[in-house]
Structure to design on (585 residues):
């Protein structure tokens, strides 16, 4: 079994879901509560990874990160090495690729919160930040949890984008899905089986724990 | 404290355009759904913005379009109870009540919460969440939450409409008792006739965004278009009449009901003998007798014939023809005991002051 690939994938998925929680939440908040008329454009951009073939996204990212692009050059000046085919490139690509999976569950959870509760909070003296912390986050807990899980799972399972911007460097960019693909290409079915089964078991256990924990403690069916 | 409101706000179907002053005590804002009542409250609370106007509590200006004053909701010191209450479902009753007084120090906060919880009889359930208490108790928590910060005005948006009558009355009692001690203006939005009569000292009638009156029978008189509204608030009988004689010394006059030979004694209003008036009488204020009654203080005893009976809800609607038709509400057991049926001769007993005569406009 390719432990290095599994460890790499877990590290990548953890970093990506933490970053997506941090940047996805404000985006989801803005998408839910902004009254700007051009909002649909941002919504479309955020949702693009859902419909684009991963290779297309990966291709543009590769071009953007390449040594001839301004981003690639800036990165090289800053760090001393190129961006493409590095772990950092994987992180950036995965964040973009999984963005809708973080934003959409949170945005829909925010949208389901009764606006009267937000008005009530404002009338009782809470600013937007306190309302967010004391009302929106607790009531959108399930949506936020779903966003984290989906970002994690989606990053763990991605293939095309990783292959385009990361290639297949053991210990650097060789993730689980690529390792399995590699094993199958090399006709090493036993190794592919082992890694695939480990990934399957891990995913199942994680999701089971999360769903078991996420029962609403204040479940209210019809309370008026 | 007086709440002075002048609000102009364009809505989808009509323009909210009202102007009034509410003194301490309960002022009912009465109107049908979609008449602009809730929007009015939201403007006063500061969660909706009028296009023009001015809102002030005494000298303290909350909103003034002219001088661009628009205090944010918390600085208005106005309590608001939502129709759906909007209690935070994930917080205990105590934390719901504490939400608006987070800026106070812990000791002050605790004593305020305890005091308000005693006033509204919820001290025993402060640690429960909204889903774990009854509808009436939730209502009390909602009131406590909006009052714990000592607001200078209280706005209630149909707060009791989901409760049974007994619970409604008890909460209304507690609210009135609380307000007797505080003397702040309370705007109470409702379209329930019951709540109107339980609370209604002053009434603002709103229709399509305008205050169409603050005296219901007067309104029904002057604008027949509002008759439905007058019926809604309980004046089932609106009768055309002509002043027959006046006795200013006794404060009464006699009117002849149109199309009949019936004369009614009513409180006196401005007008000359021969002037047209209308008389508004609540169906529940009329007594029904199967024999000619005598020895009563009531001045109006009118013979008639039952035209029809109709059971609705808790009472029976009896239509009595006295030349014109008059609606009377009686209980079902009264119908059974008196053997009331269509065609039966009866006498209607109506006190002078149950009749509201209205000078023609």
């Amino acid at each position: 079994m390719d432990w290095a690939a599994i460890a790499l994938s877990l590290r990548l998925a953890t970093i990506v879901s933490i970053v997506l929680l941090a940047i996805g939440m404000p985006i989801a908040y803005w998408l839910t509560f902004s009254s700007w008329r051009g909002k649909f454009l941002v919504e479309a951009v955020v949702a693009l990874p859902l419909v684009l073939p991963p290779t297309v996204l990966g291709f543009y990212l590769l071009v953007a990160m390449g040594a001839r692009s301004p981003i690639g050059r800036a990165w090289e000046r800053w760090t001393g090495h190129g961006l493409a085919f590095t772990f950092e490139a994987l992180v950036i690509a995965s964040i973009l690729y999984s963005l809708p999976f973080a934003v959409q569950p949170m945005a829909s959870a925010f949208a389901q919160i009764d606006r009267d509760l937000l008005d009530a909070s404002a009338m009782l003296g809470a600013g937007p930040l306190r309302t967010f912390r004391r009302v929106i986050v607790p009531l959108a807990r399930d949506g936020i949890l779903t966003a984290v899980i989906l970002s994690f799972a989606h990053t763990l399972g991605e293939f095309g984008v990783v292959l385009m911007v990361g290639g297949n460097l053991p210990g650097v960019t060789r993730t689980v899905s690529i390792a399995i693909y590699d094993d199958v290409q090399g006709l090493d079915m036993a190794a592919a089986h082992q890694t695939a089964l480990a990934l399957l078991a891990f995913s199942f256990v994680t999701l089971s724990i999360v769903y078991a924990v996420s029962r609403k403690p204040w479940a209210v069916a019809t309370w008026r | 404290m007086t709440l002075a409101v002048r609000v102009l706000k364009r809505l989808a179907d009509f323009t909210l355009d009202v102007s009034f002053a509410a003194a301490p005590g309960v002022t009912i804002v009465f109107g049908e759904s979609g008449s602009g009542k809730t929007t009015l409250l939201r403007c006063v609370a500061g969660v909706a913005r009028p296009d023009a106007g001015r809102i002030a509590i005494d000298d303290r200006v909350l909103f003034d379009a002219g001088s661009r004053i628009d205090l944010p909701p918390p600085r208005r010191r106005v309590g608001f109870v939502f129709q759906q209450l909007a209690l935070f479902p994930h917080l205990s009753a105590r934390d719901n009540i504490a939400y608006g007084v987070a800026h106070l120090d812990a000791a002050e906060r605790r004593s305020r919460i305890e005091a308000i919880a005693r006033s509204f009889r919820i001290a025993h359930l402060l640690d429960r969440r909204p889903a774990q208490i009854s509808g009436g108790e939730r209502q009390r928590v909602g009131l406590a939450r909006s009052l714990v910060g000592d607001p200078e005005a209280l706005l209630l948006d149909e707060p009791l409409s989901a409760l049974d009558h007994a619970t409604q009355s008890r909460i209304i009692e507690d609210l009135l008792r609380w307000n007797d001690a505080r003397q702040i203006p309370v705007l109470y939005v409702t379209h329930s006739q019951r709540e109107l009569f339980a609370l209604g000292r002053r009434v603002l009638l709103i229709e399509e965004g305008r205050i169409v009156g603050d005296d219901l029978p007067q309104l029904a008189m002057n604008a027949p278009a509002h008759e439905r509204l007058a019926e809604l608030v309980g004046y089932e009988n609106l009768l055309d009449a002509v002043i027959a004689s006046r006795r200013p010394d006794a404060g009464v006059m006699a009117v002849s009901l149109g199309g009949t030979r019936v004369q009614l004694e009513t409180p006196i209003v401005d007008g000359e003998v021969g002037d047209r008036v209308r008389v508004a009488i609540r169906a529940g204020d009329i007594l029904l007798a199967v024999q000619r009654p005598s020895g009563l203080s009531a001045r109006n005893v009118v013979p008639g014939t039952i035209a029809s009976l109709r059971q609705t809800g808790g009472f029976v609607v009896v239509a009595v023809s006295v030349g014109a038709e008059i609606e009377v509400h009686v209980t079902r057991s009264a119908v059974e005991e008196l053997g009331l049926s269509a065609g039966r001769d009866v006498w209607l007993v109506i006190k002078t002051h149950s009749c509201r005569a209205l000078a023609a406009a």
Chain A has one domain: 3-216. The two ends of chain A are 56 Å apart (CA to CA). Residues 217-224 of chain A have pLDDT under 50 and may be disordered.
